Amino acid sequence: MPNRKAVHPELYAPDSAGIPFLNGGKCRACGYVFFPPQRYGCESCGAPPEKLEAAELRGCGRLHSHATVHLHQGKDIEAPFTVGLIVLDDGPAIRSLLTNRRDEGLTIGDRMNSVLVAAGADQDGNEMVELRFARAEARK
Ligand SMILES: [Zn+2]
């Protein structure tokens, strides 16, 4: 039976109900929250890796900035597409592709939510999903 699989399973779960969580980390020494997860040590207080723990971050935040790419040399994605910097309610700022291909209708400060979008299938027929951010519906 084919399943949903995340293109980047280390960063988010493929089967989250509702707004997908992001896999971040937290420092037990100083409380610093970060994304993406890493095992080098706390970049805020310098605590060793043993002080870091996994933390689920809510995929909700505000749009800090955005840019639309009109010409792109890579073959992995077709232009135009829009990249946003979202400051998560849980702290970290993350750069992500937005579901809007162009930046129409986006305003700095907009509420944004993570969403999973279809990204084709792998060779075993599993449905692949990727994480994007989308403007939250009018409720602010
Ligand atoms: Zn720390």
Description:
The protein has 140 residues and is mostly beta strands. The chain has 2 domains: 1-21 and 58-140, OB fold (Dihydrolipoamide Acetyltransferase, E2P) (Beta Barrel); 22-56. The chain is 0% helix and 43% strand. The chain is globular. The model has no long low-confidence stretch (mean pLDDT 91). Zinc ion binds at residues 27, 29-30, 32, 42, 44-45, 47.
Arithmetic mean pLDDT: 91
Ligands bound here?
Answer: zinc ion
User: What is the share of helical residues?
Assistant: under 10%
CATH class of the largest domain: Mainly Beta
- Terminal residue distance: 39 Å
Given as residue ranges, the uncertain stretches (5+ residues, pLDDT < 50) are none
Q: Whole-number radius of gyration?
A: 16 Å
What is the domain total for the residues? 2
CATH topology of the largest domain: OB fold (Dihydrolipoamide Acetyltransferase, E2P)
Structural class: mainly beta
Main sheet attributes: strand count, strand direction, barrel closure: 6 strands, mixed
Q: Please identify, by name, the CATH architecture of the largest domain.
A: Beta Barrel
**Which outline best applies?**
globular
Q: Helical element count?
A: 0
Order of helices and strands: EEEEEEEEE
Strand coverage percent = 35-45%
**Strand elements, count:** 9
Topology:
Blueprint: E1 4-6, E2 22-27, E3 33-34, E4 52-57, E5 60-69, E6 81-88, E7 93-97, E8 111-121, E9 127-135
Parallel strand pairs: 1-9
Antiparallel strand pairs: 2-3, 2-4, 5-6, 5-8, 6-7, 8-9
